[in-house]
């Protein structure tokens, strides 16, 4: 331990740091200076490296540059949020596929927000023609009717059933729709007598 002239309340310890005599509390420097009370009772700002025996590495006058703050990593999305996003994307994909299917069946229809408005400018007869044209393997009259019921919920099933029969229900070709629309159907009959309609290639 080394005494410090004019500052009897302080001393330099074995490590070269300035500490108080009574409590051995090591003083901290600001900009290389120590705030010390001299023997006259006056506080002085003393350059630490001017005190004999002080370790310059502890009280260097040049402050070390602060390290640049690290960029904060973006918080990872919560698992629940990821699940919600995936669900929303799946719904959007399903909705897009549904719209594409409608466009394939009802080629002349104009898209709209409401289901009823989607077929506002398309009549039942045109829809029947489009349904048959879109079928690759053939569709029955009952299958056509089921689609019409879904597409035109505001209309009576019996009324649309009569329309289907009138358009394609003739026992022999050409049917009424074939004559009026200038098209030809490829009609096959199953063993139990059920007819399947598709557009002839």
Note down, in words, how this protein is organized.
The protein is α+β, with helices and mostly antiparallel strands and 201 residues long. 35% of the residues lie in helices and 16% in strands. The strands form three sheets. It has a three-stranded antiparallel β-sheet, with no helix packed on it. Strands 4-5 form a two-stranded antiparallel sheet. Helix 4 packs across helix 5 (157-168).
How do the helices and strands line up, and which of them pair or pack?
Layout: E1 2-4, E2 7-12, E3 18-20, E4 33-37, E5 43-47, H1 79-105, H2 115-118, H3 124-134, H4 141-151, H5 157-168, H6 176-181, E6 185-189, E7 195-199
Task: Characterize this entry briefly.
This protein is of the alpha+beta class and about 200 residues long. It has helices spanning about 80-105, 115-120, 125-135, 140-150, 155-170, 175-180; strands at about 1-5, 5-10, 20, 35, 45, 185-190, 195-200. Helix 4 packs across helix 5.
């Amino acid at each position: 331990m080394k005494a410090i002239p004019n500052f009897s309340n302080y001393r330099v310890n074995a490590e070269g740091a300035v500490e108080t005599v009574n409590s051995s509390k090591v003083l901290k420097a600001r900009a290389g200076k120590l705030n010390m009370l001299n023997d006259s009772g006056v506080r002085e700002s003393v350059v630490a490296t001017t005190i004999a025996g002080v370790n310059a590495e502890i009280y260097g006058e040049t402050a070390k540059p602060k390290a640049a703050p690290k960029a904060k990593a973006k918080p990872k999305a919560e698992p629940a949020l990821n699940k919600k996003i995936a669900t929303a994307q799946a719904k959007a994909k399903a909705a897009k596929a549904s719209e594409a299917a409608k466009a394939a069946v009802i080629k002349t229809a104009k898209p709209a927000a409401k289901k009823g408005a989607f077929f506002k400018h398309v009549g039942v007869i045109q829809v029947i023609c489009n349904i048959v044209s879109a079928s690759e393997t053939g569709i029955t009259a009952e299958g056509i009717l089921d689609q019409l019921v879904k597409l035109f919920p505001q209309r009576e099933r019996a009324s649309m059933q009569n329309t289907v029969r009138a358009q394609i229900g003739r026992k022999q070709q050409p049917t009424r729709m074939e004559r009026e629309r200038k098209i030809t159907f490829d009609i096959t009959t199953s063993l139990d007598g059920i007819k399947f309609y598709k557009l002839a290639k």
